[in-house]
From TrEMBL:
UniProt cross-references to PROSITE patterns, sorted A to Z: ZF_MYND_2
Record-linked SUPFAM superfamilies: HIT/MYND zinc finger-like
Record lineage: Eukaryota, Fungi, Dikarya, Basidiomycota, Agaricomycotina
Protein name: MYND-type domain-containing protein
Originating species: Agrocybe chaxingu
Gene Ontology MF: a single term: zinc ion binding
Stretches assigned to the MYND-type domain: 194-235
Zinc-finger is among the record's keywords: yes
Keywords: Metal-binding, Zinc, Zinc-finger
């Protein structure tokens, strides 16, 4: 899911993807427009010359350490060297820098573990552990969302609520994703499962007026109906006629629009 296109991206595109996956909180990131997701990293690259960033990193300025590691990891404005970038990030994680900086470093290192050319099962495990650390430090970024989707959609890992406490870092990913989804209505654009029953057959995306990142996939009308109690607050369908039971009216139009 994540590794497929990354190796073929240009350095600035890698920088953009890595930055947006690891720095902004997931709740903020999913609300940004495509233009904002491009402009924010672009201006970061243009804001400071890499030489100044390198000098700041040498002085142990944690923001410059993170920035220089990000540039080295992606080859944006600096020679690409993932090993040195990883070493710098692990140094931040293991140091006494502020927790929010250590959390970002953990996310960046997690991203590297799953995107490196030689990434393997151990790399994925390390990535999940680092995401758990970032969550523990109070920062939930999109890299954690991506890892959850890899677990649930690529690896078909299913963790019922009563099994998560014993599942270690993966259990933390599942719990946090559930809370994130409940708070934001987030739905993965390339979902391969019906949100209600988990099937992969004949999926259709909600065609209501919910935001693109809030459109769930359903396999049939019964599943759509079952999920309405969760999705209703995110799906706004205009009610043409007055109806004393507005929720019912919206629900009927919602089903009609989905076909």
């Amino acid at each position: 899911m994540i590794n497929s296109t990354y190796p073929h991206l240009r350095p600035q595109e890698k920088y953009e993807l890595m930055y947006m996956s690891c720095y902004p909180p997931a709740r903020t990131g999913c609300l940004l427009t495509a233009q904002e997701r491009t402009e924010i990293p672009y201006f970061r690259l243009k804001h400071r010359d890499t030489k100044l960033v390198q000098e700041g990193a040498a002085r142990r300025d944690v923001d410059d350490i993170l920035e220089y590691a990000l540039r080295m990891a992606t080859g944006s404005g600096a020679p690409q060297d993932e090993d040195i970038a990883m070493k710098m990030l692990m140094d931040v994680i293991e140091s006494d820098f502020p927790s929010n900086k250590r959390a970002v470093a953990a996310n960046l290192a997690s991203f590297l573990f799953i995107h490196r050319t030689e990434s393997d099962e151990d790399g994925f495990s390390h990535a999940v552990e680092l995401c758990q650390l970032s969550i523990h430090l109070g920062h939930y970024a999109h890299i954690a969302v991506f890892l959850f989707l890899m677990c649930s959609q690529e690896f078909d890992i299913v963790l019922p609520l009563d099994a998560r406490a014993d599942a270690g870092p993966i259990g933390v990913l599942f719990d946090k994703y559930d809370r994130f989804q409940e708070e934001t209505g987030f739905q993965p654009f390339k979902s391969t499962h019906c949100v209600a029953c988990g099937t992969k057959r004949q999926l259709r995306r909600c065609s209501g007026q919910c935001a693109p990142f809030r459109k769930p996939m359903y396999c049939n009308r019964e599943c759509q109906k079952a999920d309405w109690v969760k999705h209703r607050k995110w799906c706004v369908v205009p009610v043409i006629e007055e109806d004393p039971d507005k929720d019912t009216a919206v629900y009927r139009l919602h089903l009609a629009s989905a076909g």
